[in-house]
Every structure is written in structure tokens, then in C-alpha cells.
Amino acid sequence: MPNNTFDASPFAARRTQLLQRMGQGIAIITTAPERLRNQDSHYPYRFDSHFYYLTGFTEPEAVLVLQAEPARAILFCRPRHPEREIWDGFRHGPEMAQSRFGFDAAYSIEELDQRLPELLANQSVMHYALGADMTWDRRILRWLNTVREQTRSGVRAPHRIQDIREPLSAMRRIKDETERMLMQHAADISCRAHRRAMLAARPGLSEYAIEAELLYEFRRHGAQAPAYTSIVAGGLNACTLHYVGNAAPLRDGDLLLIDAGCEFDGYAADITRTFPVNGLFSAPQRDVYACVLAAQAAALDRVRPGAGWNEPHDAAVRVLAQGMLDWGLLKGSLDGVIESGDYKQFYMHRTGHWLGLDVHDVGAYKQDNGDWCSLEAGMTLTVEPGCYIRPDDNIPTAFHGIGIRIEDDVCVTANGLDILTAAAPKSIDDIENLMREQQHAFAQ
What we know:
By secondary structure, the chain is of the alpha+beta class. It has helices spanning 9-22, 49-55, 82-88, 93-101, 112-120, 134-148, 165-173, 177-200, 207-220, 283-300, 311-326, 334-340, 428-443; strands at 26-30, 36-38, 41-42, 63-67, 72-77, 105-108, 125-127, 160-162, 225-226, 231-234, 255-260, 262-264, 267-268, 271-276, 380-383, 386-389, 402-405, 408-412, 417-419. The chain folds into 2 domains: 9-171, Creatine Amidinohydrolase, Chain A, domain 1, CATH 3.40.350; 174-443, Alpha-Beta Complex (Creatine Amidinohydrolase), CATH 3.90.230.10. The chain has 13 helices and 19 strands. The strands form 6 sheets. The chain has a 6-stranded mixed beta sheet, sandwiched between helices. A 3-stranded antiparallel beta sheet has the order 9-12-13. Strands 10-11-14 form a 3-stranded antiparallel beta sheet. It is elongated and about 80 Å long.
């Protein structure tokens, strides 16, 4: 059944903004299809992010049509079906969807092939994500050809196709107040989950046991799902950036890297914390961790309106590269190892990405002239430096297998930044003090 607290106004405002950016023509935005997992079982359904951003509508088999002149928003969705609803659950149907979600009109998805050629007729521009889905591309081409067949009757087909993803991606880079509230809620739940994981971890448990603690905390606070497959990587596994096996035992003396966040009402959190399985950092672990934390602080200091996208990354790299030189992992000068890229042996990824409805959210990082984009108030991003030291004959044994990443979610504000994930412990003292509580409780 529908949520009685749903507010359609933010979605209507976004549709109005997109129509203004379009200027003319008609836009077609489709939601994601359902996907079979095996035989007659589907993967959990997740809507298309662009479609949801403009509608708030979460059912499959739906299409949004935006018409610039006169300005209209039209939804096509599944009709009510008492028998299917017994098996699969509630459907809004066109009539309820129109009133609840604030559309100017709504029709059954079964009428799509009939009505779309009529809507496309005499439109100069069609705004559509050409190439995103070949099945829809073929269907769109059939509609266009149907319109072209009426040329002798004076009916014109759109003569230009404009990629709707470009204006949508630009809009989605700047989060409105509703989005920021949802992202803060997703971050709060995820912070609780990371804290729970620190309290639960101890030698002898498995990575998947800690993953279960994360999933429990996500769901018990209302998150619909993990925002991505959780990374729970003990010891050397942390040196594999996208490790998702989550099946190894946790060993005394190892670090545990957890990269995990939940999705709440479509919006993602993305947090990484690294901590010792036994609750105490060894001296080498402490040195590397302190360096990564300092690198993150340097990066965070560069997150503010007007700063270039690359400034936080460049600041983090200088701190990390100096640490690598100090530990004897690299030789040469600081500027030299940065210019040569030698530091990438131990830090091979960027320091952040956009965050929102998608974990790696849409939006350009560079301008058309090749310059990095400037940060603006309302942009939300991750800041996540790391250091990954795989065993090698040229590396001091004490550093073998140390993999550390520290990641926070950050919203750019008018005066600087707001760290959405500050509640997840990350200082050495905070982590050790929290885990001491766990060790004391376990000993009793």
C-alpha cells in the first residue's frame, strides 16, 4: 500500500526545472526493467535513478513523458490487476498514480505504443537516452517511423534527438534539501552499522559474520538495501580494492577494512573504516593509519566552493607519498615520486566520487575545455584516501598486508563542507576505546 507521508512536490519541481532546461520538444524517460535471477525468481527490483529522481514512482514497467509546449508530465504505468496484486503486491494504477504523484495525465503502459506516436508528432526535438537500452531504442525507432509515415498528411517527426542524460546529470549533481535529508539519514544508519561492526569484531569470527551485523543494522533502521555489495576485508584481503568474497576468518593482529553503506529511499551512503581485529593497532599499522587519516584531513581541507575537483586528491597524494618515502617503500624526492606516479603502487585510486541516487553518481568531473569542474554548494562527494601494501621482497616485512582506507560522505556548503558520516569512529583513540568496550564485554 502507498506511504501516506509521500510528498510529490520535490519531484514536480525537478520536472519543471528539466522542462526549462529542455526549452522545446518532448522527453521520454524509462524506468529499469525487472531482471530474472533464476527460472521464475527475480532480483530485488530497483528503479532507474533518473526516472525516480523525476517521479518518486518505484514500480516497474513505467515511462515518464515530458512535453515542453504546453508543459505537461505524463506517466505510463501498470494498470490495477486484482489477481496479479494477490501474487505480487499493490499497484497504483494510472488514476491513483496521477493524483498521488502530481502528473498532468497518466495512462496504462498497455497504451504506450498507441499514444507515443501521437505525442511525438510535430515535436521538433526528442530528448532521450539513446544507446542506454537497445530494446527501448528499437521501440523508439518504431514510433518515429510511425510518425514519419504520416508526412504526406503534414505531420512532422522530431528531426533531432538530444541526450536527456546531460541536463539530468547536471541537475542531479546539486542536491536539494530533500535529497540532503535523505542522504543524511542513509549516512546515520550506515554509521550505526560501522559502529556495530567494530563492537562485534574479534579474532576467530569470519568476515561474513561481520557483514551480517552490517546488514542487520541497515534493515532494522528502515534502509531498503545495501547501496552496494559490502566489502568486509580482513588482512591481505584489504589490498584488493573491490574484494567481496567476505568468507575468510578474522585473525589476531590483522586489520579489518569495511567499505559499506545502505540505501534509504533511493539515496546511498558510502563509508569505509579500517580497524584492528583485536582492538589495538600495531606500531606499523598505527603509522600507516595515521598517515591515511592525515591525508584525508588534507583532502577535506580542500573541499569548499570554488575549489577544483582535483584539489582534494592532490592534497591527499602529497601526504601519502611522503609517508611512503618515510617508511622506505619508495625512494627519491616527494615531487619526483608524484610526478612519476610511483606512489600508485600503494595508492592507485582517486580520492573521491560524486554520491547520490547512485553510489558513483552521475555528473561530469571535467569541463568541456578539459579543466576540472569546480565544487559548488549542494554537491555531495566521498573523500577516501587509502594505502595498500602487498607483500614484496622490497618492502619491510612489518608493512606486509596492511590495507587501509578511510572514507566519508561530504556535502559542500556555502561556507565549506558538512561531513555526513562524522558519527562513524575513525581516530585511533576513538576506535581503540570503542573496541575496548567490546573486548571487556566479551571477556565477561
